[in-house]
């Protein structure tokens, strides 16, 4: 498998330890946002800032980094479209590891306001997840799945397609749950 791993997580606790087995296995081409890239690089896992792919640093207070055609092309392109990716200088992203902004924490905060809830909403993470699912990429929304992913990458799982489908199911369910919680809050708020 060739291509990069893109890491986009809000909560970085346990990330270095979780990624170490992938790094050891040879999955060393990584992209991440600035803070995550710095953390991983300082931990001995050199990681490029995703801004180098999208042609600039984060804008609008870091709201717009991964919402770019380069990221989504790298997640969506089929093998038949690889030549076009190469012409555009866009790497294929094979593995996506995502942890959303903590919307739930904002929703249960007794001092929450509509503005605080909306500012806690993750757009890029869920959008990347759905691009990766559609593109048939490996999608990890729970770091606890990485040991099983390592087994899959080593060819040790008897049902590889079933494992990928499980990861896609978990990812789609996470997106659905995330936005459903927002919808329920907004439904209550409007009353």
Q: What is the C-alpha radius of gyration, as a whole number of Å?
A: 17 Å
Count of beta strands: 5
Alpha carbon gap, first and last residue: 51 Å
User: What proportion of the residues is helical, as a percent range?
Assistant: 40-55%
Helical run tally = 10
Widest sheet, order of strands: 3-2-1-4-5
Element string (H = helix, E = strand): EHEHEHHHEHHHEHH
* Main beta sheet: 5 strands, parallel
User: Structural class per helix/strand content?
Assistant: alpha/beta
- Could you list the spans in which at least 5 consecutive residues all have pLDDT below 50? none
Summarize the structure.
The chain has 191 residues and is an alpha/beta fold.
Structural features, described:
The chain is α/β, with parallel strands linked by helices. 52% of the residues lie in helices and 11% in strands. The protein has a five-stranded parallel β-sheet, sandwiched between helices. The longest helix is centred in the C-terminal third of the chain and has 30 residues, at 160-189. The model has no long low-confidence stretch (mean pLDDT 90).
Q: What is the secondary structure topology, with strand pairs?
A:
Layout: E1 4-9, H1 15-25, E2 30-32, H2 34-42, E3 48-49, H3 51-54, H4 69-76, H5 82-88, E4 93-99, H6 103-108, H7 114-119, H8 124-134, E5 138-140, H9 146-153, H10 160-189
Parallel strand pairs: 1-2, 1-4, 2-3, 4-5
Helix pairs in contact: 4-8, 8-10
Task: Identify the notable features of this structure and list them briefly.
10 helices, 191 residues, 5-stranded parallel β-sheet, globular, alpha/beta, 5 strands
């Amino acid at each position: 498998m060739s291509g990069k791993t893109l890491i986009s997580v809000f909560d970085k606790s346990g990330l270095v330890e979780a990624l170490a087995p992938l790094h050891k296995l040879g999955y060393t081409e990584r992209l991440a946002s600035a803070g995550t890239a710095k953390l991983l690089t300082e931990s001995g896992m050199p990681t490029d800032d995703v801004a180098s792919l999208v042609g600039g640093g984060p804008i609008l207070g870091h709201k717009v980094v991964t919402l770019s055609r380069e990221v989504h092309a790298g997640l969506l392109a089929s093998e038949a479209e690889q030549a076009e990716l190469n012409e555009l200088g866009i790497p294929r992203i094979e593995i996506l590891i995502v942890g959303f902004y903590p919307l739930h924490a904002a929703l249960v905060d007794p001092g929450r306001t509509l503005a605080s809830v909306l500012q806690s909403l993750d757009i890029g993470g869920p959008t990347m997840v759905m691009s990766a699912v559609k593109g048939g990429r490996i999608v990890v929304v729970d770091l606890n799945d990485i040991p099983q992913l390592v087994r899959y990458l080593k060819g040790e799982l008897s049902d590889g397609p079933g494992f990928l489908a499980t990861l896609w199911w978990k990812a789609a369910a996470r997106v659905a749950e995330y936005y459903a919680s927002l919808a329920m809050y907004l439904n209550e708020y409007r009353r």
